[in-house]
Structure formats: C-alpha cells, structure tokens
Write a structure and sequence with these properties.
32% of the residues lie in helices and 16% in strands. By secondary structure, the chain is of the alpha/beta class. The radius of gyration is 16 Å and the shape is globular. The strands form two sheets. The chain has a six-stranded parallel beta sheet with strand order 2-1-3-4-7-8, sandwiched between helices. The chain has a two-stranded antiparallel sheet with strand order 5-6. The N and C termini lie close together (6 Å). It contains nine helices and eight strands. The relative contact order is 0.18.
Amino acid sequence: MAYDRVVLVHGGMLGSWCWEKVLPLLGCDVVAVDLPGRSGAAPIPATFDNWVDTVIRATAGKSLIVAHSLGGLVAVAAASRASDRVAGILFVSALVPPQGYCCWDLLPKPLYLVRRPLRIGEPRVVMPKVVARFLLCNGLSSADRDTILSRLVGEPGAVLGTPVEYRLDDGIDLTYVHTTHDRAVTPAQQRRYVALLPDRTRRLRLDCGHSAMYAKPAELAEIICQRL
C-alpha cells in the first residue's frame, strides 16, 4: 500500500526524541509527534482526546501510524475517528486495549506492585527510574539507556485512566512487531494484544527489548519502509 506520510507515535513517558535513530533512515514524508503533556507538544490540555487529535492533525492524505507501546491506544482511537486519513497502523510492542479498557487496565504485571506508588503525585505519574531501567532498557548501550532515563516525563493520571473505544475498518492495513525480549510488554502480552486485532494483521518480530527504536533502529526502519 502507498502512504502519503508516516506518523511516529511515542510510548508512555517518552517523546518524539525517542525516534532520533530511526528518523534519518526513513526516506519518506515522516512526522514524529509529541503528545500533549511534554515540552515539545502544543500548549493544550493533556487529555486522551487531545492526544488522539494531535496524531490525526499530523496525518496527511493516507497515512501510516507507527505506534510504540502506549501509543497503540492512541493509534487505534485515531484510526477509528479518522479512517479516511489513517490507512495503516504498525504496532511496535504496542498496547491494544479490549473495548472500554484504559491504560491502567493493561498495566504490565511487573508494575502491579508499584501501581499505587505510581499514582502518588497525580495528576502526573512517572515510573521510578529503577523500574524503567529494568523494563525499558534491557539490551541497550549505556549511552542509550542514559538518554531514555534522563528524559522520562510524567503522564497525566486522567489520561491513563481514560477508557478507549474504537473500530478498525476493513481497509486499514495492520502489522504488529513483536519484541521478543520485552520486559515491559511481554511476548505473552503481545500475543494477547494481537489476538484482539483482525485476522489479517501481519506479525513480524525483532529480537530485542522494549525500546526497539534504540536497540534495532535499522531493522525497525526497514520494516517501516517495507510497508510504504
């Protein structure tokens, strides 16, 4: 399928900067968005609706959304609201919610014990760095690990608690990239998420942890380009 633009959507606590190693490898019209709630985003309230609208506004013509982690919830909602503009979604170890579920409902099992501490300080919550290091940074160089851990941002608790309703039209092209050493969204969880998607969904894999854009930037860029 031919796309007019690729829209890169970061995961939770990250920003558009997380695509810095992938962007130079994409020879196409590409935009990496900052979801509201971080310094690079538009000065609008950090709500789930504004997250979705930010992604939709970044599209042009028929677009491919590349969604990492928490970005999966935003991608399916954007595709549901703007199926005329979202022609495909490439999920990268992404969360795919059952109808009516919110991010908190999909919290990875390793975080169950720290869910209450995560909520301290709402309306913004952030993963403790020792937990983030274990879940997000396995297999990374020390430099990449430091980049991620030094730039984590808090997410609005209200956004994480917003239920997601969506519908994926038959014409939307779907691909799920499994990260086989993922600690944040485990392979078993990824399989459950794929089971919620239509049978036509392609399944690919990268042998890395959760932060594929740092662990395997060239391979991820090649997967994106193959969809164009």
